[in-house]
Amino acid sequence: MTRQAIIERNTLETQISVEIDLDGSGKAAVATSIPFLDHMLDLFARHGNFDLDLSARGDTHIDLHHTVEDMGITLGEAVAQALGDKKGIRRYGNIILPMDESLVTLALDLGGRPFFELHKPTEGGFADILREEKIAQQLDDKIKGIDLELITEFFKSFANSCYVNLHIILHYGENLHHIIEALFKAFGRVLDEASRIDERFKGQIPSTKGTL
Hints:
By secondary structure, this protein is an alpha/beta fold. The chain has a single domain, classed as Ribosomal Protein S5, domain 2 (2-Layer Sandwich). The protein has helices at 35-48, 65-83, 126-129, 132-143, 148-162, 176-195, and strands at residues 4-10, 14-21, 28-31, 51-58, 92-99, 102-109, 115-119, 165-172. The protein has a four-stranded mixed β-sheet with strand order 1-2-4-3, covered by helices on one side. Helix 1 runs parallel beside helix 6 (176-195) and helix 2 (65-83) packs parallel to helix 5 (148-162). The chain starts with a strand and ends in a 17-residue tail after the last helix.
């Protein structure tokens, strides 16, 4: 069974192309014109064992919002198409993943009902780096304009276009790069777990409704 898809999205704001193989070997060719996001999507493919070819151009002279959002939409559509009828998949995936001083939890359900939720601490740790002055310094010095708001938009767009239930918990962390890197590594892992074929299901839909 081939679980591959090619999706293109062309608007007046962006031009996105995504090719994905859910049963790949972790090879990635990513060119988004946003180097930090290229790195994150490479991590996603490597840790999910997906073969991913993704290119994106957009109105980045305005800001990065349209490009990042549309990448999430297009990747979600590609994964949904590659999943096909979802027969035999595990459906659920979850992980608690550390990255140096940062810790995140991701949980995902490929059940066909789109929902996205993000939780973060209200005191200390991650909340500290959201203070305007520290965010501004990290954006200038480390990750060149990709802030958490855009990363959140990417995951929300993916969840809505792929019709998945995705929950993210940011437990703690002091370095924005580490936190976002942990998110993308965890994203690859949970999507791999949820989309993997489980022979015990004998090709059946993992739902009492008989459809996802």
